[in-house]
Write the structure tokens for this entry.
Amino acid sequence: MPVDIPKDLITELASAERVVVLTGAGVSAESGVPTFREAHTGLWSQYDPRELATPQAFARNPRLVWEWYEWRRSLIQNAKPNRAHYALVDLEQALPTFLLVTQNIDGLHWLAGSRDMIELHGNIARTKCFEEGHAVTWWAETDEIPPRCPYCGGPLRPDVVWFGEGISEQSLRTATDAAAACDLFVCIGTSAVVHPASQLPLIAKRMGARVIEINTEQTAISVMADWSILGKSGEILPHLVREVGFPTTAIDGAAQ
Ligand SMILES: [Zn+2]
């Protein structure tokens, strides 16, 4: 029994009709995914990551930025979903209306099986074209770095949201509408200081939802949350799913 989960929270979740979950770096960290800053070591420590993750940086030196993302992909290629990821799949399957909004770009939620999901900041495993935004799943391998878009010949880039770029309007509207309409909003492993994700729990709260926070430390959300549970999401979430009496699947074999 890792943590005590308040009885009224269990009752609330058991009867919830509409639940929105926001996840951040803390959930990825439990799978061993290095944070943006932690990924910035060795050869790359001489560069400022804020100078690499921008459209201007890519326009200036596309090869450098492409290779930085290759490096970051290599750091996460062995990462596996953890018990928190799988517990969120259980919630998606058990609840009448569920939306997962993630700030993580590692694709681990998808790998675990989450499907009602918005990847607010994109996905590092996906590639798109810098010029026209074409979604690209294959390209001709040549010596050229980055490779070229098979549709328009523009340089290819990772399908992530860079500093100075907006989140897709459609994703943002879907997330905002869901936050405004939910009964329960759950913030997991995020300090939610990055706009616009930071607005989502506030919108939910203002529209009458109860807010749960699960994090290893107190954050700006803690003061407005109805429940703030300190600890690892990989321990708390599966426990919560079991306590509520929802079916739990595929979590026992998951990486811790
Ligand atoms: Zn293109």
User: Anything to note?
Assistant: The beta strands are 18-23, 97-102, 117-119, 122-129, 135-136, 156-160, 184-188, 210-215, 227-230. The mean pLDDT is 91. The domain at 7-32+80-121+167-244 is CATH 3.40.50.1220 (Rossmann fold).
